[in-house]
Design goal:
By secondary structure, this protein is mainly α. Among the domains are: 81 residues; 30 residues. The protein contains 7 helices and 3 strands, in the order ααααββααβα. Strands 1-2-3 form a 3-stranded mixed β-sheet. The longest helix is centred in the last third of the chain and has 17 residues. 9% of the residues are buried.
Amino acid sequence: MVSLIKFIEKEERMIPNAYLTKADEALRVTVFDSPKFKQQQLIQKLSAVMEERFKKFLLYGALEQKSLVFYFSHNAIASEFMGKLVDFKQKIIPLYKEHKMKEHLYFTDIKAKVIQKHLERKEEPTKEPDRAKGDFEIVANDNAIKEAFERIRQKIRSSSV
């Protein structure tokens, strides 16, 4: 939403009013005077008061019923924001009064919610470990040891199949 607002404002500065048709002018007035647009602008002004570490993870803010909800991309930041909610409220009270936000943005509660992006994890195929095949030379001189190694060789060969 922020980029759309910046784009519209940028386009507005680039086009002189003399070139705007009545339809363009009506559309511009309609977009900028809509209640949702004003709400988004005011929510952006309120979110500008946040600490920088909260702004990094802030996705957007919205008015849901009578609650102002800020959506974050990380659980820890959302819970930390809720922990520092009293400080945030103290910062926005003068801003709320200064811009007369009660007319367009009325809320009784502030909440923080988390939207996590589910990244698909690539599952690597499990590589089977290299197994012994029983191909080794028995160099022992004692027959008992040779027989023991021969039994080991047979077990390895039978289990590797």
